[in-house]
Design a protein that fits this description.
The complex is a heterodimer of chains A (325) and B (245).
Chain A (H helix, E strand, L loop, with lengths): L1 H20 L3 H27 L6 H17 L4 H23 L4 H21 L1 H4 L5 E2 L14 H24 L1 H11 L1 H6 L4 H27 L1 E2 L6 H14 L5 H15 L8 H15 L4 H15 L14
Antiparallel strand pairs in A: 1-2
Helix pairs in contact in A: 1-7, 2-7, 2-10, 2-11, 2-12, 3-4, 3-5, 3-10, 4-10, 8-10, 11-12
Chain B lengths: L3 E10 L2 E11 L4 E5 L6 H9 L6 E6 L2 E2 L5 H6 L2 E3 L12 H10 L16 H13 L15 H14 L4 E5 L7 H12 L6 E5 L3 H4 L5 E6 L2 E7 H6 L1 H6 L4
Parallel strand pairs in B: 3-8, 3-9, 6-7, 7-8
Antiparallel strand pairs in B: 1-2, 1-4, 4-5, 9-10
Classes of the chains: A mainly alpha (325), B alpha/beta (245).
């Protein structure tokens, strides 16, 4: 256990040191993006990995939170009002999403979430008096929590890191909790769970709300990071990208979505500077992951590591990235 | 007051009448065996009793309380537990965790999203105790995927018993077991105290016959014969539909 705690402490220190190691503001911003998308992916992972419900509409929820922040600020209110109302409205939309989509599971669930996401995208695109349509809404300032200015890349990274760590901590506690075990039970054996006395629908609803909360937090960070929001943020491709992060890294693990967010954001921002068809690269990488590590990078790497150790003839069991149930 | 009373229960799937006017009264502490050839509607009857299916007509009473319209999950809270003919467990989890899920189903703890599950020592202890009853405590930490079929059957029973049911419904508890495993499961069922009422489906009459106080014979969804062991075995209709004479 101490080894594990040491590793966690080292990881946190390494993350905190990022802006001092890579001094260029551009790359610090890329790191902020990775962290905020990792929060988004962690949120989606609650549904995809632990509830076994694949959503293709989460960019809609992400976008709602972003739009509410931008609109409330544009209407002249302060940052606290913007953030609180973004969370409230975001959770309200999440509850609506959940109530409509949880009537189904499997493919039907995917299609309902996809349709709901597309409706929100359509509203953002067409309801011009509300959303300013394709022109989007700009945000002119970032909040100053405890009087700290977040204008610089480094300061924004630090705040994103704090929220990211809180999100990881909350997710870790959630998946190890009785409710987390219950949720995994509804994924693996819903019929039995019902016979054991569990309210399967309500459990899934609760998980959807937690997923939506993390998604909205990421959406709020995004609009402050980007200082601009447009319908593109809500597009189907954005939902698919988030799903790609979860699945490529390893659904149903804590580390997987974070690694997945890293890969997708780096491909988008860094590799795209060298390779014009970066989408092609991303697709190729995804295909390679699916072929060689269908369970995702993190569990896949753990498996390869285990078999490598075993083939070296050692019999001592090796701690691996544990698949949190 | 009977433990379980099924009155005029009927269920059709489209044009197929699976249960027709089934009446069944099980006294508290009784061991009731439901037999019948394949397709007799035994499992459907169980699914109606546990609420996984809704009957077209008829009523179900549990200790004189009408539960016909009560949601299936709530029937577990009222003291009804079941096992499945086709093993329905949590394959990614350990035996212990499977049992803990059974215990948690009836505890408010199941809604708690912040406590650490493995630190719920009373829950862990209770799960160990439930597994000790079926002789699996030794391998409680083993992943379910690495257990034998017979062990899985016993996990099913341990999970049902862990919920301290008043009425226990066992759907073919001997299905697919070896002779040795049958003997183990049988001992286990004999040891269940009489404050638990047991209704058991068994396809193979020989295995379960002497566990039962009374026997109900279903055929094409209808109760053909009901009575004590001797009565049912002696009845010519049993021989006709079941023993194949």
């Amino acid at each position: 256990m101490t080894g594990r705690n040491l590793a966690i402490a080292a990881a946190i220190l390494a993350l905190a040191a990022v802006p001092y190691v890579i001094k260029e503001a551009y790359y610090v911003n890329v790191a902020s993006q990775i962290l905020l998308y990792a929060i988004f992916a962690l949120g989606l992972n609650v549904l995809v990995g632990y509830a076994g419900l694949v959503s293709l509409g989460h960019a809609g929820l992400f976008g709602v939170a972003s739009y509410v922040v931008a609109s409330v600020l544009a209407a002249g209110y302060g940052h606290s009002a913007a953030i609180v109302s973004a969370l409230a409205v975001g959770l309200l939309f999440t509850a609506g999403f959940a109530a409509l989509s949880l009537r189904a599971t499997g493919i039907s669930f995917i299609m309902i979430t996809l349709a709901l996401g597309e409706i929100l995208w359509g509203v953002a695109y067409r309801w011009i008096s509300l959303t300013n349509g394709d022109n989007g809404i700009s945000v002119t300032s970032r909040p100053m929590p405890f009087g700290l200015a977040l204008g610089s890349a480094n300061a924004f990274y630090d705040m994103t890191l704090v929220i990211f760590l809180a999100a990881v901590g909350a997710s870790a506690i959630f998946v190890r909790s009785p409710f987390g075990a219950t949720l995994a039970g509804t994924r693996d054996q819903p019929r039995r769970m019902n016979a054991l006395g569990y309210h399967v629908w309500m459990i899934r609803f609760g998980a959807f709300m937690f997923s939506g909360l993390l998604t909205c937090v990421a959406g709020i960070l995004f609009v402050y990071y980007n200082k601009f929001i447009s319908p593109q943020t809500l597009a189907l491709t954005a939902s698919a990208e988030a799903l790609l992060m979860v699945i490529s890294g390893g659904a149903g693990t804590l580390l997987g979505p974070i690694v997945g967010a890293g890969i997708v954001v780096i491909m988008k921002n860094v590799v795209s500077a060298y390779i014009v068809r970066w989408n092609f690269m991303l697709g190729a990488i995804f295909v390679a992951i699916v072929v060689f590590m269908p369970e995702g990078l993190v569990p896949g790497a753990a498996r390869l590591f285990r078999s490598a150790v075993r083939s070296m003839g050692r019999t001592r069991p090796v701690p691996t990235a544990e698949r949190t149930p | 007051m009977s433990a379980l009373a099924v009155t005029a229960l009927s269920k059709s799937f489209g044009g197929l009448r699976v249960n027709t006017n089934v009446n069944l009264t099980v006294e508290p502490g009784e061991r009731r065996l439901i037999i019948g050839p394949n397709g007799a509607g035994k499992t459907t009857l169980f699914n109606l009793i546990t609420g996984e299916l809704r009957p077209d007509s008829g009523s179900i009473r549990l200790f004189d309380r009408d539960i016909t319209a009560v949601a299936s999950r709530k029937r577990a809270h009222l003291g009804m537990a079941r096992t499945y003919q086709i093993i329905t467990l949590f394959p990614r989890d350990t035996i212990l965790r499977n049992t803990m899920l059974a215990l948690m189903g009836l505890s408010p703890l199941r809604w708690n999203p912040w406590a650490s599950l493995h630190r719920q020592s009373h829950l862990v202890d209770e799960a160990h105790a439930a597994l000790a009853r079926v002789g699996l405590d030794r391998i409680a930490g083993r992943p379910l995927a690495e257990t034998s079929y017979g062990e899985k059957r016993r996990v099913e029973i341990a999970m049902a018993l862990a919920q301290r049911p008043k009425v226990l419904l066992l759907d073919e508890p001997f299905a697919g077991l070896s002779i040795d495993e049958r003997r183990d499961v049988r001992q286990l069922l004999v040891a269940i105290p009489r404050d638990v009422t047991i209704v058991m489906i068994e396809h193979d009459m020989d295995t379960a016959l002497d566990l039962a106080d009374r026997i109900t014979l279903l055929h094409f969804g209808e109760v053909i014969v009901e009575g004590s062991r001797a009565e049912v075995v002696a009845d010519p209709r049993t021989r006709e539909v079941y023993l194949g004479e």
